[in-house]
């Protein structure tokens, strides 16, 4: 493994010792959030992105090692393993290189070359392949043998060419050259299936399309592949054939002899029949993997922004799931998100019970001391918002439109049925809308990320890789915020470092049976929650109102003694340390350095004492769409409107402007200057100002622009003091950095 440590260290530009220590911690069951937060002395303060990159790269290299063992075992069993071959296998740095080495020895079905060898034509193939100045026809005559089914000279030469074609296909250097050539020169060629032009209208951009594989963006690659899988498009992924054959000729042909002409024929046959299909298959896999990585990176980054959206916090909330014919489902929730009341109101057509609906809202708002009203942004959302705003409610009640994407998925899920077994889907959906306003992170972890709608082609990418990436993002967000163990759902607890589904379930069951946890130490009483799980999870679990104030903070229990010693040295209590900055300023951190605890952890402790349990998310700020613009019919070209970014893709950003249909700001309209990556300009949940360019009601398409005066509103985090900005950058962008590193190490 030492060779791997050095290799990873070089790739990540870090010290091999950091890699070795990190791998050891991971192998011992350490989680990425725990190691990055509480083992900085051991890792040299590596962040989550670097630790996750080490984890994934080690796994990749271990898989390569396993494959090497299998290849060596096969070669040994075939009695073909030589010292040179063993050296080549052991030195192979990629799976592709390893498979090239093994290809000539890999057990295969009976081929044309196999049949030719059975007819004794391999010596003739060798003579011709050497391209000596000899007549191949004369040589071939010696191999004509009716008993071996070689009837004439042409059959002998054909058999020899079959053997040479296989040699060419299995030559390591040839495959390496051809692989590079395909990656640099291949083009996607998409064509519509004849007769399917009408059915395939959504793919009309690709009816007669060509573009470089190397330059094709992720969304177009995935779109073409989806069209192919749905049998609307025919798709080839090849370079110009003559250029490929010319490259092989330059590499293999040694003159103008008659033998060379036979080799040329073998090259053409070998390329068309063996090399080209093999390289095309490999390139399609590589391009798909690259497209997947880019799409997953976009999805993960968007997901992170959505999960880390500003929470309203613990407020009494009324939530409305709007509708016309079926009415609006209304629920009232307490500060912990528990359901207090539900009923249906009918303020819109066709019932139009406006007076009764208004009276109901006012009565319930007073009865339950409502502090905010959450309204889903689906059908009748804007109309319901207008209705509520015109009721004359106290100004202390904030009315907020909430993105309800995925709420219906939650309401029909087993999670929702378990939580509200006696309520119907509509009530559960309204509860989800209200809770999403209170704490987006806690509610969104209950929903399959693919149902939230912040990705591109999320159902087409590698589902295992997508889940792996999103799990990393969700775990990173959950542990960055911290979890109140006495109120958290089973789903939220699942993502706490060291726990997982079973321990999360056990925690909830213990809490339901024994009442709330009074301190962190009592968490150890949970069934099957051992010392290792406690070590990993404890620092991320909060217990509000605990006797020890550190139980509400991110200070790990293993460091409590140090904090107590600090307080003792200053002749004060731990509570005094938290409340009084002048006391904290007197602490000389160097006095508390030990073999296990160094300055990085001590600085984290001091920072946490200043703001125990600090929520890293931004402060909630209410947002309103433009009044009077409720549907696409209200839109006119040139209108300037406020909006919220709902999805960022490689080709632009989708913006909710309050008309039940998101508009697209194409990448060319995101800025007055050139933009290569939309994520550099906008992010999900960001508030922006846009200009309407075009409205296509028949296709439900809205084109928007952010050029000129339509500038994105600066997010609060971007207005923060320099110190806060540095801290945010040091945490690392888990989504984009990790995906980029994974792409770098592919192959």
UniProtKB/TrEMBL annotation:
InterPro entries: HHH_9, NA-bd_OB-fold, Ribos_protein_bS1-like, RNaseH-like_sf, RuvA_2-like, S1_domain, S1_Tex, Tex-like_central_region. Pfam families: HHH_3 (PF12836), HHH_9 (PF17674), S1 (PF00575), Tex_central_region (PF22706), Tex_N (PF09371), Tex_YqgF (PF16921). One of its GO terms (biological process) is nucleobase-containing compound metabolic process. Residues 61-98, 143-170 form a coiled coil. CDD domains: S1_Tex. One of its GO terms (molecular function) is mRNA binding. SUPFAM superfamilies: Nucleic acid-binding proteins (SSF50249), Ribonuclease H-like (SSF53098), RuvA domain 2-like (SSF47781), Tex N-terminal region-like (SSF158832). Residues 708-731 have a biased composition (Basic and acidic residues). Residues 706-735 are annotated as: Disordered. Residues 638-707 form the S1 motif domain. GO terms for cellular component: cytoplasm. Keywords: Coiled coil. This is RNA-binding transcriptional accessory protein. It comes from Roseivirga ehrenbergii (strain DSM 102268 / JCM 13514 / KCTC 12282 / NCIMB 14502 / KMM 6017).
